[in-house]
Design goal:
Layout lengths: L1 H28 L2 E2 L11 E2 L2 H17 L2 H9 L4 H22 L3 H17 L6 E3 L5 E3 L2 H22 L5 H23 L7 H20 L8 H19 L13 H13 L1 H16 L12 H8 L3 H24 L3 H37 L14
Antiparallel strand pairs: 1-2, 3-4
Helix pairs in contact: 1-2, 1-8, 2-4, 2-8, 2-9, 4-5, 4-9, 5-6, 6-9, 7-8, 7-9, 7-10, 7-13, 8-9, 9-10, 10-13, 13-14
């Protein structure tokens, strides 16, 4: 655990300290997000926060390479994790910088994402096996493993990019997912008598540290956005950890049967389930109204939470709650024998969270109205302009 704590600390500290410098550079460079009608922010906000996150990743890899036990999992084995993350991450960051400044077209970004997946494959990060319902592992030849790896990388990057809609949302959600992957890999290895040191666990630890270090600058009201530079980078690392964890554990030696074998493949869809559902509902809503499915509107999930009376911060925290609940539920099912206890606890917490989410803004609105009535109109302060959403 000492090795992981050091890498998490290095990633978080460097990302945190670099962000103010990157913010000033983004303003000078002209990489700023100008407010649009459907946006929550009201002033131009610098992008390129992913550049500071990349610096955190590099620092963490340097620290890890200086630890004797960890060094062999970075480049001495069949999978060169350090080289893969640096090369593919560097490529993604370059494309992200160009997009945050000049808005690169979708085809160019897609080509860069495929190229980053190709770098993973060349360095040994690839899906080699998939779990079968009968409990056995099916080995995949390159003709199947390569395109499946590319699909996972591209889908994960774009899922994270879609999440990036509110201050601190993407960094927090991916940080929760990374912590869940790290806990899953570390605790499952320890409980089954396996080594806890692996490239997959290290990647998840670095990703968690990057997000934790950047989040204080990005939480509402955000001083800087991660931009496509950051959303594509953290999506890339999330896919790398997922791919390396797939097939790492032999179902024959796992205490809880086959389910833990599926957790890495289930975790990313579970984390992205809420925004993906929002995306599907948006496409259905727009096409049902005779509009293009890509036409913007103000009826996304975070817009609806704001309309219910939640603040921007509270809306983000609500998303954190649901993502954390789904992720912890999956990890709990993988680690503990009593599945019904885990499911019961998850459902109970979910019901409590749903009630608080729906009732709290109503109480706040009633309390504010009662306070205004008690003071009278002559004591009411002048209204301040509200933030457009």
């Amino acid at each position: 655990m000492r090795e992981y704590l050091l890498t998490i600390l290095a990633a978080a500290l460097v990302a945190y300290l670099l962000t103010p410098t990157v913010r000033r550079f983004a303003v000078w460079f002209g990489a700023q997000a100008v407010p649009r009608d459907r946006d929550v922010h009201v002033i131009p906000t610098p992008r390129l926060g992913g550049l500071a996150m990349f610096g955190g990743m590099v620092a963490a890899l340097i620290v890890a390479s200086g630890l004797p036990e960890m060094r062999k999992y970075l480049g001495d084995g069949e999978v060169d994790v350090g080289k893969a993350l640096l090369m593919s991450g560097g490529l993604i960051v370059l494309i992200g910088i160009a997009d945050d400044r000049w808005e690169v077209d979708a085809l160019t970004k897609f080509a860069g994402q495929v190229a980053a997946a190709g770098i993973f494959i060349m360095q040994g990060i690839q899906i080699y096996v998939i779990p079968m319902p009968n409990g056995e592992s099916l080995s995949l030849p390159p003709a199947y493993g390569v395109p499946l790896t590319v699909l996972v990388v591209v889908a994960t990057i774009n899922a994270v990019n879609f999440i990036d809609g509110l201050d601190g949302l993407a960094a927090g959600v991916v940080g929760i997912a990374a912590l869940a992957l790290f806990s899953y890999a570390y605790l499952l290895s320890k409980s089954n008598g396996m080594t806890t040191l692996s490239g997959a666990t290290l990647t998840a630890a670095i990703l968690f540290g990057m997000c934790a270090g950047f989040l204080p600058h990005n939480f509402s009201p955000a001083k800087i956005f991660m931009g496509d530079t950051g959303s594509m980078l953290i999506g890339l690392l999330l896919s790398a950890s997922t791919i390396m964890l797939t097939g790492r554990f032999d179902p024959a030696v796992l205490a809880n049967g086959l389910f833990p074998f599926y957790v890495p493949l289930l975790l990313v869809p579970a984390v992205a389930a809420v925004p993906f559902m929002d995306m599907l509902l948006a496409v259905w809503r727009r096409t049902n109204q005779g509009r293009s499915p890509f036409s913007p509107d103000k009826q996304h999930l975070h817009h609806r939470l704001l309309e219910l009376g939640h603040s921007t911060r509270r809306a983000v925290l609500i998303m954190y709650f649901w993502v954390g609940l789904l992720a912890s539920g999956l990890v709990g099912l993988a680690l503990f024998d009593a599945a019904w206890i885990t499911l019961g606890a998850t459902v109970t917490v979910a019901l409590g969270g749903m009630l608080l989410m729906l009732l709290t803004p109503g109480r706040r609105r009633r309390g504010a109205a009662a306070e205004r009535e008690g003071h009278g109109d002559r004591d009411r302060p002048a209204e301040r302009p509200t933030m457009p959403v």
